[in-house]
Amino acid sequence: MHLKRLSLLNYKNFETREFEFDAKINCLVGSNGVGKTNVLDSIYHLAFGKSYFNPVTTQNIRHGEEFFVIEGLFEKKDREERIVCSFKKGGKKVLKRNGKVYDRISDHIGQVPLVIVSPSDRDLILEGSDVRRKFMDGVISQSDKGYLQDVLDYQKLVSQRNALLKFFAANRTFDADSLEVYNDQLHALGTRIYEKRVAFMVDFTPIFAAQYKVISGGDEPVQLSYQSQLDAAPLSDLLRDNLEKDRVLQYTSQGIHKDDLNMEIGGHPIKKFGSQGQQKSFLIALKFAQFQFMKAQVSGMPVLLLDDIFDKLDEDRVSHIISLVNQDHFGQIFISDTHAERTEATVKRIHQTYALIAL
Ligand SMILES: Nc1ncnc2c1ncn2[C@@H]1O[C@H](COP(=O)(O)OP(=O)(O)OP(=O)(O)O)[C@@H](O)[C@H]1O
């Protein structure tokens, strides 16, 4: 599928703006602050009904205005699809597909498969484990609708169990039976989520490794691995064995809400020991792996948004990325860059049609 036309009304720095896009490569070029990332974010809105960068919806309305409208015309298997995302201050976000309003925005997810690569992805390396779990959950849930509900139900149970532990501590009381009810449910859900994460990583890790190898052009010893307390023992045992600890801490210290993805180079955390270019390559490989994984799950090729990805990468790595996206298994691509000449010289090496859009 590809986006043919985009129209923006009062979206961030754009008052009214129309864009026509190439079915393959689109380069958005211009100086800092002209709105290149904003255009990518508006396309992200059409896929996920929200911003990738700013979760406060009112802040996506152009300053001084009351509403925004983003309208995209897609071509999907020779049929046209019109997706409109709009928001008015004080109201609810409205997402429409071919004139029909969605009851729930989540029902739209998957209609426009899309992967974004942006400088803010570095949070995946630098921030806490919740960011990495969210990434993993996002990719798994693309192909498994029940998975996200399991994760939400599990999180609710953990909150309830934590509240009970706090209640016990505050009231100097304890009731093993009521805690046991939570433990049983957490064990059932947590085990199911754990098994799905393990199975996912078995498929995902080699795809990631292959992408990294192409981007780095060699055999840098990077490793991505899943780490869970459930690797050591079943969750029911962990909850039982850590009961005294949990009572002191007044929260649930064991479970899949503590899972993490280890990102290493030469056996050491890439966060501390990877160069900026290596970290960036790692993140691009992660996102390209997400793209490949998603492609196998959805009908039609996902759209790829590449926000400012060439910065900090040497010529070789840029060439390798270009050769990767030049292969048939990538669909429509949007690239933002401040250097019009660099971008054009780069995309010219791709033997595909392209549009250069100056902002
Ligand atoms: N709600 C808003 N109303 C008006 N302008 C906004 C709003 N939100 C963001 N902007 C403006 O959008 C601009 C930033 O746009 P964007 O991040 O897309 O720039 P860019 O072209 O990607 O820049 P860079 O090359 O620095 O990454 C800023 O000038 C900012 O003030």
Automatic annotation (TrEMBL):
Belongs to the RecF family. Residues 2-344 form the RecF/RecN/SMC N-terminal domain. The keyword Ubl conjugation does not apply. It is found in: Cytoplasm. PROSITE patterns: RECF_1 (PS00617), RECF_2 (PS00618). HAMAP family: RecF. Keywords: ATP-binding, Cytoplasm, DNA damage, DNA repair, DNA replication, DNA-binding, Nucleotide-binding, SOS response. ATP binds at residues 30-37. This is DNA replication and repair protein RecF. PANTHER family: DNA REPLICATION AND REPAIR PROTEIN RECF. InterPro entries: DNA-binding_RecF, DNA-binding_RecF_CS, P-loop_NTPase, RecF/RecN/SMC_N, RecF_2. The keyword ATP-binding applies. The RecF protein is involved in DNA metabolism; it is required for DNA replication and normal SOS inducibility. RecF binds preferentially to single-stranded, linear DNA. It also seems to bind ATP. It comes from the Bacteria. It comes from Robiginitalea aurantiaca.
